[in-house]
TrEMBL record:
Subunit architecture: Homodimer.
Coiled coil regions in record: none
Protein's organism: Diaphorobacter ruginosibacter
UniProt xrefs under PANTHER family: 2-ISOPROPYLMALATE SYNTHASE (PTHR46911:SF1), PTHR46911
Domain Pyruvate carboxyltransferase, residue spans: 31-305
Protein known as: 2-isopropylmalate synthase
The protein's Enzyme Commission number: 2.3.3.13
Gene from which the chain derives: leuA
GO biological process: L-leucine biosynthetic process
Pathway: Amino-acid biosynthesis; L-leucine biosynthesis; L-leucine from 3-methyl-2-oxobutanoate: step 1/4
Pfam families found in the cross-reference section: HMGL-like (PF00682), IPMS_D2 (PF22615), LeuA_dimer (PF08502)
């Protein structure tokens, strides 16, 4: 990089608009959307879409609800020409949709463009030419009056050609290409030239489309430019003021939003921000940002994944997993504190109330996404996420201290494996930790039990230290009786039992927290069975085994310290 960037790059001069009003405005309604996926987006692909792909994407754009769709550059590409003809000849344009086609400012190209859309009920023809100094000087070698002459001549030419086809309702869109890099007075003069040449009036509207062909300043500068144009364009009431942001600085969405606040009526962009270089503005993000502010975007993204897959298929461009709203990972929390908050948020969310689940700016269900991937477990995860998954996927509700205990077990495992843990893997670990009989010689294995009617006495058929034996115990319930039968200094601190699953698959899950004399702290054990009694007995055996293992571990570490 340059050691002194100020020698190489110059900031874009701020706009003199001290009384700007846009910063205190909010967006209260959807703009007129124009999808340029089939034109600007298509032009930016390694391999432009063929007719079939274009048709697939076109139909999806119509389904989403775009009422204006730029369908191509028919004078520049036979594929586009044929595609536009097919839309018209096969009557594939719904009554409430208007197609737009682009042409450069050249007579023969304008003629061919008119040819392409002949017979359409309505058509927008998009004429553009660059107006910024670098393009005037380097690319076209034209001075400002020559640029104005170019605009006047070609708009008049289009007017003459389109007037010859009154069966079509024509709209002119004029874009001063490179607008954001140009002097405002020059852009305004070019637009006013187009407005006059087109003969704008109540029945003869024009779309003035202002692009950040190359995004070159912070989005507030673009907003100032738009507000300035909004104030100066005449007759404003017959002009649809449109913006066409690109995303070179990564602020295309902000530019579009600020521009709407500054007076833009219309936004052009592409799904998921496809387009030249860093893309056109992502209309999905702009629309859903609006939605999360309570404003109906009038575009249907209720199956965002379906839209994403079609866009990927048609453009052969993958959508980043962290792409706003659509990425595979955007409704996934790995961090423990986030998982905990999300879990609490879901539990507290009133289904008819205002959305306020922490860390989720939008209800994934509104986009047709499920909560399945909301919580994922890796070494960064905490008890919240783990218990959420255990509860949702396996119906296991753990008491809080058990959540803490089990999350440490999970953490050890994920730290060692350095991988994410699926819901199934989590269940296997839970099973191995609490439900399975430990694989040690001294483990207590309970083969059978018999509880008396009143539940106060029990007979256990167990193997302890490899010796099979029958034990008997008494207590004020089956748990106390089992503890008594095992003859261990166990103190049961907490017991709970819940059903998991339903109907024929219902199982009782018993959870016990207990402490044992000589063993530091308490721990949990669990038992699961279709029979509540059996689940309780197993839970006692489980906690006894776990406390025993802890005591052995304690003794071993004391022995190690003593030896050292
Ligand atoms: O980015 C741009 O300037 C364009 C215009 C032709 C509107 O795509
Ligand atoms: Zn563009």
């Amino acid at each position: 990089m340059h050691s002194n960037p100020s020698q190489k790059y110059q900031p874009f001069a701020p706009i003199a608009l001290a009384d700007r009003t846009w910063p205190s405005r909010t967006i209260t309604k959807a703009p007129i959307w124009l999808s340029t996926d089939l034109r600007d987006g298509n032009q930016a692909l390694f391999e432009p879409m063929n007719g079939e792909r274009k048709m697939q994407l076109y139909k999806e754009l119509v389904r989403i609800g775009f009422k204006q769709i730029e369908v191509g550059f028919p004078a520049a590409s036979q594929t586009d020409f044929d595609f536009v003809r097919r839309l018209i000849d096969e009557d594939l344009i719904p009554d409430d949709v208007t197609i737009m086609v682009m042409t450069q400012s050249r007579e023969d190209l304008i003629d061919r463009t008119v040819e392409a859309v002949k017979g359409a009920r309505r058509a927008i023809v998009h004429i553009y030419n660059a107006v910024a100094p670098a393009w005037r000087k380097i690319v076209f070698n034209m001075d400002v009056p020559q640029v104005m002459q170019l605009v006047k001549h070609h708009v008049s030419h289009f007017k003459m050609r389109s007037d010859a086809h009154p069966e079509t309702e024509w709209t002119l869109q004029y874009s001063p290409e490179t607008f954001s890099s140009a002097e405002l007075e020059v852009s305004l003069a070019a637009c006013q030239t187009a407005i006059e040449a087109w003969g704008v009036g109540p029945d003869r509207k024009i779309i003035i489309n202002l692009p950040t062909t190359v995004e070159n300043a912070t989005p507030n500068v673009f907003a100032d430019q738009i507000e300035w144009m909004h104030r100066h364009l005449v007759p404003r009431e017959h002009i649809v003021l449109s913006v066409h942001p690109h995303n070179d600085r990564g602020t295309g969405v902000a530019a579009a939003e600020f521009a709407m606040m500054a007076g833009a009526d219309r936004v052009e962009g592409c799904l998921f921000g496809n387009g030249e270089r860093c893309g056109n503005v992502d209309v999905v993000t702009v629309a859903l940002n609006m939605y999360t502010q309570g404003v109906d975007p009038e575009l249907d993204f209720s199956d965002i994944t379906g839209v994403a897959r079609i866009a990927e298929e048609c453009t052969s461009l993958p959508i980043h997993p962290r792409h706003p709203y659509a990425g595979d990972l955007v409704f996934t929390a790995f961090s423990g504190s986030h998982q905990d908050a999300i879990k609490k948020g879901f539990a507290a969310q009133d289904p008819n109330g205002v959305w306020e689940v922490p860390y989720l700016p939008i209800d994934p269900a509104d986009l047709g996404r499920t909560y399945d991937s909301v919580i994922r477990v890796n070494s960064q995860s905490g008890k919240g996420g783990i218990s959420f998954l255990m509860e949702r996927e396996h119906g296991v509700v753990m008491p809080r201290r058990m959540q803490v205990e089990f999350s440490a077990v999970v953490q050890r495992q994920t730290d060692a494996s350095e991988t994410e843990m699926t819901g199934d893997a989590l269940w296997k670990l839970f099973d191995a930790t609490y439900l399975a009989t430990p694989d040690t010689a001294e483990a207590i294995v309970c083969h059978a039990h018999h509880v008396t009617h009143d539940g106060h006495s029990i007979e256990l058929d167990v193997t302890i230290n490899g010796v099979r034996q029958t034990l008997q115990g008494e207590g004020n319930g089956p748990i106390a009786a089992t503890v008594d039968a095992l003859g261990l200094p166990l103190r049961v601190d907490h017991y709970e039992e819940r059903a998991t699953g339903s109907g024929a698959n219902a199982q009782a899950l018993a959870i016990i927290e207990a402490a044992m004399e000589g063993v530091a702290g308490s721990t949990f054990g669990a038992g699961m069975s279709a029979n509540i009694m059996t689940a309780s007995v197993q839970a006692v055996v489980s906690v006894a085994n776990r406390l025993h293992a802890r005591r052995v571990g304690q003794e071993e570490s004391t022995a190690d310290t003593t030896a050292a």
